[in-house]
Amino acid sequence: MITVGVDLAAADERSGLAVISWSPGRAVVSSAYVGASDEQIVSAVRASDKAGIDCPLGWPSAFVSFVADHASGLVSPPAPGGGASWRRRLAYRMTDEVVRSSTGLIPMSVSADRIGHAAFRVAGLLSLLSPDGVPLSRAGDGQVVEVYPAASLLGWGLTHRGYKRAGLASDLVSSLLTAAPWLSLGAFEPLCRRSHDALDAVVAALAARAAATGRATQPTPEQLSAAATEGWIALPTCPLADLVNP
Length: 246
Description:
Pfam families: DUF429. By secondary structure, this protein is an alpha/beta fold.
């Protein structure tokens, strides 16, 4: 199995990409770099069995309706005292609220934070990956799945905060390799130690493996409609060690 992880940013120079080749008892990072272009991402995803992208794959349905209503001048203001909850529905997707409830982490708002710039880019990438005009699933059941490296690291008992500060990615790499002795970073270990973008791409590829093997959260039937349009963050549900089991 081949899994790909993409730590997507609006600009190529901050976008990390990693490829992991899986075999019984072993996982090898066969490629990792920072500065991934659209063409390189599309090529890697197409060659993979599953790709995890660290970026929202859609916007809150309420926000999409709000923008359409605003363009027509038909926005209905919130009821007295309901402004905070009204704005929250515009800012956060259903999957964001699920992650918040289950992990305590608050994903960035795709409609109110700078992550929206990367989401513009991923929308184009999803179109490039759908050459026959059939939209890729945003619910995680297709070739692409939305992942959240910090939440994956939290679930695996590893440092999930602060490692993006200068010099701290190396400590997380050491912890990751201790927890997963079957994982080989090979020639890409120095890059992962100095670049959290490359490291996040590796974690995204690990999370993609969890999703590909049925060991990650999936939307319930009641959540599926929202996940199909807004996206779904797949959180690994297994220990890190289980990823390498055949």
